[in-house]
Amino acid sequence: MKLLNNKMLLIVLILFSSYGIIASCTHKNEPVPAHAPTGVIINHGNHIHHPGTTAGDSTQWKFDQIHSNVTWSTAFNGVGAPLTGRFNQFGLATLTPAVMTTYATTGQPLRDSSWVFYENAPANTHFSGYVQINTSNTGAPGRDQGCYITTMGTAKAVAGTQDLSATNVAFIKTTSVAFDPAANDYIVTFNFTWQGKLGAPITESLTGKLTYVPEQVVAGTSPAYSEMGLELAFQFNCRDFGITATDIGSTITVQVNANFSNK
Amino acid sequence: MDNSFFAYMQQLELMAFFSGYPLIYSLVLYIAGTLPEKNNFKTRLVSLLPYAYALIGTLYLGDLLRNMYPDYSIKSIIVTIQQQWLIIWGLLSLLFWIPAISKRIVLSLIHSLVFLFFLGKDLFLQLFTPSANSDIVRNDMKIYGNSLLLNLAAFAFILLMSFLFTSRKSRQMA
Fold first, then answer.
1. ipTM passes above 0.85
2. CA angle at residue B42 from B33 to B56, to 5 degrees?
């Protein structure tokens, strides 16, 4: 009788444990994981942005130069960590020989209106832009107004003037813009013109990646206005432009972050 | 976070030490039942069960002291211990070191069934409450599995010690 009781206890405990194992092995509380995406999700909206200067016209997008920047970086001595800097003066205007001169102003010398952006029709997108070489700012004035000036073949900036002369500007002008098949971006082909330390400016065809930051209303603004952004990244070989200094690498990486508003 | 979480953790600790004993108990009794009636090993096998249980209780006491280290003041003990009655019940297993109590082996089973009750309660809720969270049962079963291993190891250790002690004693007598 005693053995029978123990057998019963054993059976009950084994059944109890078995049920516990089965109950703990069910996956009913675990959500079925979603299928992994098989490709890049590309979703281009239909935003179209045109430039303008009329304040208060929300259909016109104004280049916000103060809150934009053009930065460059290159490996220090060609092998080290990046040496970086930014240009204090730049703009979104097409440079022709007629306008490439010196301007006595502290503001933008030319209207920043040489651009159009179509989010879903990149063939219609185009832009031009420039930087003033002698306004590079690495945070070390001794370098920026010293060896950098001679290395780049230009002259020191003069206070109160904007120097758009051929020896002091590098500029780009797009030749084609297309969808990036691998991402939600655009592939931009453009002409890059710079004299560097050569006798005359030369033009190279380069390719870069353009990213669009879609327009959004800026929260808490009255009257409400929107912001949008364009980011362009590209590289070029400074040796092609006669820059021989070996304390900088041959490859220069340029990043353009441009902000626009419609206020 | 309130103290219910720590109380639950202490309940899980107690389950980890004691809930596996009933199955080991009934397995040993079943094996002993298959052995011949006049077998010395059979008697020893069964009689060692409460000592294995007392060893589990001792390990639990050690774990409790380790958790309270280095502050063993009354105030610290009151703050640390959330399930005082359950812990006192668990520590009562130390009484099975006393031969007079360990003679009644069924008491060790009754003592350990209290801890199996919590596992049974969770399983019952899982079975009859559609919205029950199976993670609790899954966790309980992991603890139950570890408890089985711990109790089996404790019993094997006591059995080994018993054989070593007996063989040494018989050698000394010879």
1. no
2. 100
